[in-house]
Specification:
Blueprint (H helix, E strand, L loop, with lengths): L1 H23 L11 H21 L6 H25 L2
Helix pairs in contact: 1-2, 1-3, 2-3
């Protein structure tokens, strides 16, 4: 139980950090002054968030499951957009 709580806390901290970086800074925004390294770091964070969300979703119930899924939407879109952009080059 303590392990799951620690993983959940880490997940929510990573989600808040990801959204804060995406919406309030230029980090990772390669087309508006960000560097490729920043973009790569942001994508690694997004992939980690998606992986932990996949692990947490079946272990939560009710509202907690919905919150985990909603927090994961933006990172999933970021990873999907990057994959689509890479395949069309």
């Amino acid at each position: 139980m303590q392990r799951m709580r620690a993983i959940s806390i880490g997940y929510y901290v990573a989600v808040v950090a990801f959204h804060w970086l995406v919406f309030f800074t230029g980090v990772g925004n390669y087309f508006h002054g960000g560097t490729p390294f920043e973009w790569f770091a942001l994508e690694v964070l997004a992939i980690a968030i998606v992986g932990v969300a996949i692990w947490l979703t079946p272990r939560n119930r009710g509202v907690a499951r919905g919150i985990v899924v909603l927090c994961c939407v933006m990172p999933v879109l970021s990873v999907a957009w990057s994959l689509i952009a890479a395949m069309t080059r």
